[in-house]
Amino acid sequence: MRVSNLLVPTLREVPAEAEVVSHQLLLRAGFMRKAAAGIYTLLPLAWRVISKIERIIREEMDKQGGQEILMPIIQPAELWQASGRWDVYGPELFRLKDRHGRDFCLGPTHEEIITMLVKGEINSYKQLPLLLYQIQNKYRDERRPRFGLMRGREFIMKDLYSFDRDEAGLDISYQKMYEAYTNVFSRCGLRFRPVVADSGAIGGSDTHEFMVLAESGEATVLYCADEKCGYAANQERAEAVSQRTGSGGGAPGELTKVHTPGCRSVDEVTKYLNVPPEKIIKTVIYTTEKENVAAMVRGDREINEIKLYNALECVRLDLADEQTVQRVTGAPVGYAGPIGLEGIKLVADHEVMALVNAVCGANERDMHIINVNPERDIKPHLTTDIRLVKAGEPCPKCGANLLEARGIEVGQVFKLGIKYSKALSATFLDENGKAKPFVMGCYGIGVTRTMAAAVEQNYDERGIIWPVQIAPYHVIVVPVSNKDQNLMQVAESIYCDLNEAGVETIIDDRPERAGVKFNDADLVGYPVRITVGSKGLAGGQVELTLRRDGETEMVPLNNVVDAVKAKLKALGEEGI
Amino acid sequence: MRVSNLLVPTLREVPAEAEVVSHQLLLRAGFMRKAAAGIYTLLPLAWRVISKIERIIREEMDKQGGQEILMPIIQPAELWQASGRWDVYGPELFRLKDRHGRDFCLGPTHEEIITMLVKGEINSYKQLPLLLYQIQNKYRDERRPRFGLMRGREFIMKDLYSFDRDEAGLDISYQKMYEAYTNVFSRCGLRFRPVVADSGAIGGSDTHEFMVLAESGEATVLYCADEKCGYAANQERAEAVSQRTGSGGGAPGELTKVHTPGCRSVDEVTKYLNVPPEKIIKTVIYTTEKENVAAMVRGDREINEIKLYNALECVRLDLADEQTVQRVTGAPVGYAGPIGLEGIKLVADHEVMALVNAVCGANERDMHIINVNPERDIKPHLTTDIRLVKAGEPCPKCGANLLEARGIEVGQVFKLGIKYSKALSATFLDENGKAKPFVMGCYGIGVTRTMAAAVEQNYDERGIIWPVQIAPYHVIVVPVSNKDQNLMQVAESIYCDLNEAGVETIIDDRPERAGVKFNDADLVGYPVRITVGSKGLAGGQVELTLRRDGETEMVPLNNVVDAVKAKLKALGEEGI
Questions:
Q1: Which of A47, A91, A139 sits opposite B70 (nearest CB)?
Q2: What distance in Å separates the CA atoms of residue A455 and residue A190, rounded to the nearest whole number?
């Protein structure tokens, strides 16, 4: 392909609407254009990257026995009503009516439709396991679409669904997909980490997220400093090791109300009463669709709302507003405490219950209570792990230090169990002729998101640095002047030779200055650049430059193909 | 792949809802399942066929310089309002609102979005021509979806758009696509014919449809008996050669009103007045959004409403109801005639104007007029070709006989001209720095429809007969008994050998009776079946059967791969 013919509209300026690097660079490097908020057209170079990612995914799914199908994007409401998700999914579900007034939605995910399909076609345990997948546009009507392909309203997903006869079968399917995902992201040349994750709204039990590591990642990953241990979790899910800090300090004293004028925050109370923050009980009021909740963690900790949400088994969890706090505690925000608080659910973190002579709010303006001994003084309805774990804490698996990294979630594997098969009465007959619900798993990869994550992980101030495995082209040939006929001929013949040798090569044949071509090549991020200039040619050589580190060497004309192939091979191996 | 693992749920019964062969067979052979009216899930075998068709399309588009992109399915209403199509498209457009109440539609086609894209990115004639395409789901909310994939509401299309600097450039792009389409359908192993077509609602001038020939085809194709001439047209578009039949019969007589009690139809008038039908002027009343219309053809002809619609340049054309006819002509249906008819647009076919002493309705119950000499007696507002051409008439190009065939439209190439670029102010700068609108073409292939058309063209009473080029697998190996271990081993090793030799092979390893396996193999339509039975094995042979004609031969075990390859090659060449 010739740059003169290719639709790759590079931009000099950073587009104002683009907040993150991948959004900026994919726009600037001419990979995509916006059609509406969160909705993009993928231009030729992006489509090449996507095709490569899709090919790798297909190969790895097929290798594990996956069968590719194509389900509808537009799904009848009846299915979603049957599973109960039509009502709970909320405004993120794009809904529409057909000409006869029937309700449909644009699929954000396909559990319902595939469960009904398998229900209709599979009767016997002999036909299991079954792994079905598709690669397709998905839809999510984000309230505030942003970050380009990272959080769009229309995006490409691979979704695979596994159907097994029992939990043991699901374990095997899950493990297959875990391996397949590891292979997919390795083969895409990305640095990533599978982490224990939260199962969120889809339901189910075990789940891992595959995180592409990048400083700009929206998620925090905690992982064990001991590589042999291998523990890694999304921060929202990381298990806390309860510590007994704050349990020292002598015999339990008597509950005493003290005056703490204007002290609302842990910091203020700490200073005023001269107690360490780990001896303060932080009490935060929430509301759910069922009740009000007072959640307690130590003053030096933060509440992990995902853990709290899961512990409460609620649908909605919101921080209480000022009026609610006033009504529930009888005091303004900043003075809540578990003692004497009634008509509210008390949830304590394990660490809180281990405190001795602690401090908490008195549910009264400007007042706190000291000598709180939770085991004696508090009767929580629920004591569990509800706090956020941070780097530096001990690994829950081996006790070594936890380290922190930022990641972008590009894939997730889930054990669904019988959630959908039960809701939709999808059963098969086991060896004894007994009807049993399918035991299901679901496994997603964000394909467009993977492309964006690859950019977030691989760029510098000049542009994208594509991993060679998913680069839109491997090599760009840049003749420094279009006026020198000899030079152009050499460039053209290198271009042809490389393509004939199976190296995906593009030539920048535009009548532009060399500087413009170099800038565009760096911005787009082709892994290898061959520069054909008159100086080099005088010595029978061209310049080979690696985009990743700028390493440049002169290569004799008769060795270009071999030299390029060697470099690409090395780059590919490095990448993994 | 093993049949025991593959999701290919064959059915014994013909599903009640399926009216056409492709719909019946694709359901029965386990290629697809319905998710909602006109909306289907494509199962693994269908997906393999679709993938093959898509690969062929991509190769042929790329060969002509096409660049693949991916545009959104969900399109903002603003674009459609700008082109004017939001209001005229009608109920076939799926419309929806996002959470902020903004209007969107699901793209039935992508002229607006691509024109705006190119408008934003291409400034100079130097960047033209530009050929952009995508393969993607399209949406059309059919009033009555039917015929399975032939007329669905969600379907896969390839759409390419060409952008040129002028008509000469468009001619070249059009020719490129014409060639590409010819290659695509040839390479799919289909018998087809490109025909001159009507440009319909999309607008534009030149257009050809690519018709897969099949008796069940919904369209009538007229083509010249002289292969050298090569004229072929969709019946809706076929040009009429006006004939002067009915112009004999002597000197023009005097207009005379005659009593024709109860004679409403051409047939009744013919008998009652003893005149041949070609001497009767059939007058049909229509309504458009602008006016009432009286259209006239000879009594032995039929009105071609597409031609009439185009001639009237209207948006809506409907047959007038009884009340309207009564109001406009003053008589019940059956007595309309051009003479004395006022306040209505008169449109005459060429042949009508050539009649001498003809008969027409008198706009009065039970009355007709004789001795009508249109050149003398009728002043039509428009005289043009508005009649339906039929087989047996002369070819408009060479005068030879026209023959008739039935066809299924699977592709269409259009010259759009500047319809969209003008409406959306999409211009480039020419050599003189002058802004000019892009001259556009659009080119569609119905991908799912092509699969269905392949079935309509290739089946027998036992099932589908896939052209080898797009068959889901080339060969099925059928061991006649699963109990004979030696036999199973031989079958397995043939299965492995064929796959290793690059032949896409499946093995029916189910513990079913041989008859069930044969029936399923025939129903699915694998081009070649290798039957491994004990009788043959005793002589060191297996049976090789061609699905198309049932031709069977015994092949020595050591020659299976070569024999299969030779058969597939021959089948592939036959197909084209």
A1: A47
A2: 10
